[in-house]
Design brief:
Number of helices: 7
Low-confidence stretches: 1-7
Structural class: mainly alpha
Largest sheet: 3 strands, mixed
Distance between the termini: 18 Å
Strand content: 5-15%
Radius of gyration: 20 Å
């Protein structure tokens, strides 16, 4: 919110509150009967705080819905991959760098946007996200089909290396560290204390 969320056309956010100071922070949000509140930013703008919102076609919940959200994100990414697969991602004519850029922007982004705010991700969800990511990268390197007799296909690890992508578990860890760094460097004091405290 401090980074101009309204300027980006995203006037809503989900607040996950836990740990010391939970009750006071909850009152600051002034939730009404529909569980929608507002938070006054230092800029003078009001940020609506809602129980769910839709981003990149995926409905995000307030807390502890990581398995459900991962499944929805994988489904959204798979739909985008299928839509682009035959017309762009799996075609030889566009340059490899162009196909990879489109894949990261239009498909992979659906998997990991705001993943740094997630709680611990179950192993099954990590595998689901990794499977969707691997299928997308296979399309980009033109190996998105079953092998022909006698044909060798690269492993998922080899394909990730070609595309410069880390394993999914590492990407999730990196996302969490980046989010933590942004919070420590510039977030409001109450948010820093919540994340750095025992309930963070």
């Amino acid at each position: 919110a401090e980074m101009g969320i309204r300027d980006r056309g995203k006037p809503e956010a989900i607040a996950v509150l836990r740990g010391r100071g939970f009750a006071a922070a909850q009152q600051r949000l002034a939730h009404d009967g529909e569980k929608v509140g507002s938070l006054r930013l230092p800029s003078g703008l009001d940020l609506r705080v809602v129980p769910t919102y839709k981003h990149l076609g995926v409905t995000t919940g307030a807390r502890d819905h990581i398995g459900t959200e991962a499944m929805a994100r994988a489904s959204a990414a798979n739909a985008a991959r299928h839509a682009l697969g035959r017309v762009l991602l799996g075609e030889r004519r566009p340059a490899f760098t162009s196909r990879l850029t489109v894949a990261k922007t239009c498909v992979m982004a659906r998997l990991l946007v705001a993943a740094g705010t997630w709680n611990d991700v179950p192993r099954a969800s990590v595998r689901q996200l990794a499977s969707s990511s691997s299928a997308t990268l296979r399309r980009v390197v033109l190996q998105g089909r079953p092998p022909r007799p006698g044909e060798h296909l690269d492993t998922d690890a080899q394909i990730r290396q070609q595309c410069g992508e880390a394993p999914m578990a590492r990407q999730l860890s990196i996302a969490r560290l980046r989010y933590f760094g942004r919070v420590v460097c510039g977030a409001p004091a109450f948010l820093r204390s919540l994340i750095q405290g025992s309930g963070g």
